[in-house]
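Q: I'm writing up a methods section and want to include an example of the input and output format. Could you take the sequence below and give the corresponding predicted structure tokens, formatted cleanly so I can copy it straight into the document?
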Amino acid sequence: MPTPLGPVEFILLGFAGNRFTGDIAPALADLVAAGTVRLLDVAIVMKDAGGEVTVLEMQELPEDVAEAMRKIVGEVRGLMSEADLLEVAENLEPESTVAALLVEHVWASRFADAVRGAGGELLLSERIPGDLMDQARETLLAVAEIS
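A: Here is the clean output for your methods example:
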């Protein structure tokens, strides 16, 4: 029986244009090497100027990009379906690209095991983007300066 997974997150990263270069691979590789996350699956979804959608899975990426990503993707792949990725494409602007990542939060696995072991269950988990948190902090600091 396979080892249970920790919390898994579906992440979409948007890029203008239709050339995904894989420049994010080194930073992602650092997270994988540190044991912070495990990359379970990756796919690239592109929409051209005419609205034509292309979905590229690992084996279909340009060789330079595939090589960079192959080094960091775990043994579990194929978890994102073509239907899931086509749904992503529906909201994609023309001339844009999305990197779809399925990431296991390895750092949280022990805690998740403890919650399950204590009979608990996750009721809500919501990721708040960093730029929203930055804005909230700036607002709080500005209010504090006025007071």
